[in-house]
Amino acid sequence: MAKRFFVLTLLGLLFLPLTSFAITVGPVKLEYSVDPGDTVSGELFIQNEESQARTLYPVFEKFTEEEGVKKFTREESDLSTWFKAQSLISLKPGQQARIPFSIEVPEDASPGGHFAVIWWSTAPADFEGQEQVSIVTRAGILVYVTVSGDIKEEGGIESFSTSGNKKLLTQLPIVFNIIFKNTGNVHLKPQGNILIKNVFGKTKDSLSINQFGLNILPQTRKSFQEKWQPKSLAFGFLKAELNLNFGESKKSSTQSIWFFVFNWKAFGTTVLILIVLVLAPFVLKKYNQWIISKALGKR
User: Fold this and answer.
1) pTM for this structure?
2) Distance, CA of 266 to chain centre
3) Would the CATH topology of 6-147 be identical to that of 155-262?
4) How far is CA 15 from the centre of its chain?
5) What is residue 297's three-state secondary structure?
6) CA distance 9 to 178
7) CA 141, 187, 36, 248: dihedral to nearest 10 degrees?
């Protein structure tokens, strides 16, 4: 009989406790910079959210990323073999636990980035070898380890544009699309801002990029999107200047684009002001003439 099973997973990417139906684990991710031969230690948090007792097992998998989407495989990575933690834990309903762990980096560890995910699952690692239909609940913690040596922190902005790469924008908010490519051998966390400037170079607004600190794995790219809703009426030529910093060496990458905002509300307000400015002297002159004529008529 062919083996069949259903796996329910949820891997959180924000700095919040990670919940997968009935299991909560934390932290969401672990990041370490180490030297060959180092040992680092810490604690994991786990809670059984169900109304019945559960036995949970750690399962290690390698993960990669394609176009910003994480791919998990049972292929054993070097990092998964460095991780030391207890083989299982039994929790009563609602019970919480803190689990100590260590990462033992071998002396011959290759420099650069090493990545794995630790799943806490209701089924052991060899579950797939069983011929049964089951529902497996699991929740995971991403682990990023950078081993010192020949580190290459390389990358940059691959593209920066408005939505649809439009130069004439008539609708708000304005959407900016960013693609950052990591060409090095360690994960990068590009962060920075978009400065909105007028034709005179004065900054009108600023948008933060990658506030949650999302990582980009080596030789991959990730897309970011930010929306700009002007705090005041926007009209005319504007410049968006993207500035990103990344890596321990604080490298930077910059791109800028020009676009024209044609906002009907702003346009109508501008036209109305111009009309008032043009007609005001004429109306005032006519009004003065009328006042004078009324005064002379009373004599």
Assistant:
1) 0.75
2) 33
3) yes
4) 11
5) helix
6) 29
7) -120
* Rg from Cα positions in the chain: 30
The whole-angstrom separation of Cα 293 and Cα 299 is 10
Which residue matches tokens 């909560």?
Answer: 24
Number of C-beta neighbours around residue 122 at 10 A = 20
- Could you please state the CATH topology (level 3) that the domain comprising 6-147 is classified under: Immunoglobulin-like (2.60.40)
Residue closest to 65 by CA, chosen among 224, 183, 219: 219
Q: Domain 155-262 adopts which CATH fold?
A: Immunoglobulin-like (2.60.40)
For the chain, the structural domain boundaries read 6-147, 155-262, 274-299
| pLDDT tens series, the chain, 299 aa | 444 434 444 444 333 444 445 789 999 999 999 999 999 999 999 999 888 898 999 988 888 887 778 888 876 668 888 989 888 999 999 999 999 999 999 999 999 999 999 988 888 866 554 544 455 678 889 999 999 999 999 999 999 999 999 999 988 899 999 999 999 999 999 999 999 999 999 999 999 999 999 999 999 999 999 999 988 777 789 999 999 999 998 999 999 999 999 866 656 666 677 777 777 777 677 766 667 776 666 55
